[in-house]
Known about the structure:
single chain; alpha/beta; Rossmann fold; seven-stranded parallel sheet; three-stranded antiparallel sheet; 7 helices; 10 strands; globular
Amino acid sequence: MLIIRAQDYDDMSRKAARFIAAQVQLKPNSVLGLATGSTPLGTYRELIRFHRQEELTFRDVQTVNLDEYYGLPPTHDQSYCHYMRENLFDHIDITPGNTHVPDGLTQDPNGYGREYDEMITCMGGIDLQLLGIGSNGHIAFNEPGKVFSAPTRLVDLNKNTIEDNARFFDSEEEVPRQAISMGMKSILGAKRILILASGIGKAEAVRAMVEGAVDPMVPASILQLHPDVILIADEAALSLIE
């Protein structure tokens, strides 16, 4: 795992955006795995700036998102489909049909998960997967547990994750308790993984991911087994790393 130290959140975002921009420039029809939440927002703002000011084109790019809240329609203002349109897709020249966010209203979530994984395989796999890390060490919505779960599937959200995400809703009670989440098979199948971390609240999870054992109780620790992982984190998030 290559660790790149950033001065702060903005520096982390700029560094991450440069990696993604380079991927798109070198392979215009790249398949990008995308994340949501607060961590990648700065990265998406930088990519929009690259598109507008430096003519970076996403015309032939395909994207697959990690997850979606189960039970939220794509028009809901807290759905990840809405998030992606508002924070990236509506501001660049990507072809709408080339963007893929899991369906939070599917009536057969596990069957749908198999189809989602098959779609990624048919695309040739993910060229660059962008990840954040939860304070409990989760990646996507793969929560701590007894085993690493491979397929895209319906998951129950951890209490810690619900509490962390409550800031995006009017109350904790409004946070969905389940999500459709990409599993470890498609994530680890990515050719390169870019994981971001910012703030002291992520420091313990980052330490466990980098220095701890590979343990399903720290889902991100499985990234130690991938041959090409880049961690970009600020000083606070790296504060417990020796």
